[in-house]
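Example pasted here:
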Amino acid sequence: MSDHHEDDHHVHREEFHHDPIAHAEVHAGMTVGELAEEYGSAGVGAANIHKAVDIYAEMLDDDVTNFFGLAGAMVPTGMRKIVADLIRDGHIDALVTTGANLTHDAIEGIGGKHHHGRDEQDGKSMRDHDEQLRDEEVDRIYNVYLPQEHFALFESHLRSEVFPNIEETVSIQRMTEELGRANSEVNEREGIEEDAGIAAAAYENDVPIYCPAVQDSVLGLQAWMYSQTSNFTLEALKDMTHLTDLAFEADKSGAMVVGGGVPKNYVLQTMLVSPSAYDYGVQLTMDPPQTGGLSGATLDEARSWGKLEKAARNVSVYADATITLPLVVAAARERIE
């Protein structure tokens, strides 16, 4: 038999480049940054995590103005301090979030707590399980429990510490600023063990918080109820001038979008009325793009709208954000510090 020879037929490959999968290696004692590097050896979601770390680390440069969108149940599920620390360290220049996240953030800051729970109970149907929680006055967010008395604490906080100090007609951003001030002061005055939180950190560091769908939350409900017995009014359009000015003045800009919904679109649509678009974008979501909804839409799709520059560096990571956010932030911080 003749020796084996390579096939002499060579196909011209315009797309293919020699870049073999180098199987990830993990070991005890490795850092998060080292783990993220190993993700880059792999494919599918691991490769996207690696790219997200790479882009986010570049976004954290002082020359980049960072817009951060925070949707979903990120505060009650334990992601609160990650965001607050990013604000304190100068890595968020504008935060767009939900009234729900601000509600849960304030509850923690003034002495309330969320608790480990469960999404099922042996011997009970899901309906029976949730009916029992209803009778016991406990609210459920998947496997997180929140006693309802904390909402009464929050209402008292708003009516005694927040609303009386706000002018009659204000922007939503002005209200969130006042909420942050109150959270910070009460947290210190009462010696609360838990961190003062996201809104407090934003207030203390002059970072604006925008909450375009605030009425879709307990915070919004309380603001509406207060408006029924006072001249208090929120003027939503005022926020857009402030946010747009930030975009106009940015030399380079980046969007970190956690979850979808209103916070995601509010962050991205800002560039529709700006002379430039985002230079960087990272999206952490679980919503698929195939349904055509905004929450799962890729950031490449946003490029077609002019929300991202044609040459922007961007990636979408499709996985549970309570897993991906800490990993991406920790690895990016490790790289820049």
Q: What stands out?
A: The longest strand covers residues 308-318. The mean pLDDT is 95.
